Amino acid sequence: MASSRADPYRALFHKLAMLNSLSAEELDGIKSLPLRPQRFRAGATIISSGQLVSECCLLVEGYACRHKLASDGGRQIVSFHVAGDILDIQHLLFEKADHNVQTITDAEVVFFPMRDLRRLIEERPEVGKALWRDCLVDASIFREWVLNVGRRDARMRIAHMLCEFAAKCEAAGLGSPAQFTLPMTQEDIGDATGLTSVHVNRMLRQLADEGLIARAGREIRIADWPRMQEAADFQPDYLHLAA
């Protein structure tokens, strides 16, 4: 995996530009934060539930997820993340992690001290506003995921997850509904949608048989985006990609 350390904030700045207009001085303030880069293999834990957190982490390259574990060890994935996502912005105010952050591919992450980020926010309130909006978008996505798992049938859950992932990849410049790579396994998809891997595979085959998607390994093409959105009950407003 090629390194992105020469410009670790490129994807973040692209995302923040959609959420809040920041001046060159404010962007320079973010760039001035001290960085600690680290690379992780697929399946590695970046943050563990119960951990005391003193650094904030930014996903620079690769894919990750946030998840909770039940007492029997069952995993519920609550979000998937792409480059440019800050994986734990809530730790600006909550020092102890209440969930796990795990890579789903090889990934590059940079960490920066919370105290430095808090200081920057005090000096540059517009940076704080942008990060607050980013946190609110996460909350909006969580609400949609509760609806997806709680009220949609299996076919619709899978279709909705694919639509959301395609939309996020397109916004991050990582693909489009016309062609994107699905980095998660069928087990990951099952843990995100409350389904077994067998059921996930069946639903993916059904969507392909209906002509909604085409698959070649992990390469996915949504053949009919409007019809796929309708099948998924997908309305992208909750992503606030054009806010």
Automatic annotation (TrEMBL):
GO MF, any single term: DNA binding
UniProt xrefs under SUPFAM superfamilies: cAMP-binding domain-like (SSF51206), Winged helix' DNA-binding domain (SSF46785)
A Gene Ontology cellular-component term: cytosol
Superkingdom of this protein's organism: Bacteria
Domain HTH crp-type: 152-226
Record bears the keyword Zinc-finger: no
Keyword Acetylation: no
The protein's name in its UniProt record: Crp/Fnr family transcriptional regulator
Source species: Sphingomonas naasensis
Taxonomic path: Bacteria, Pseudomonadati, Pseudomonadota, Alphaproteobacteria, Sphingomonadales
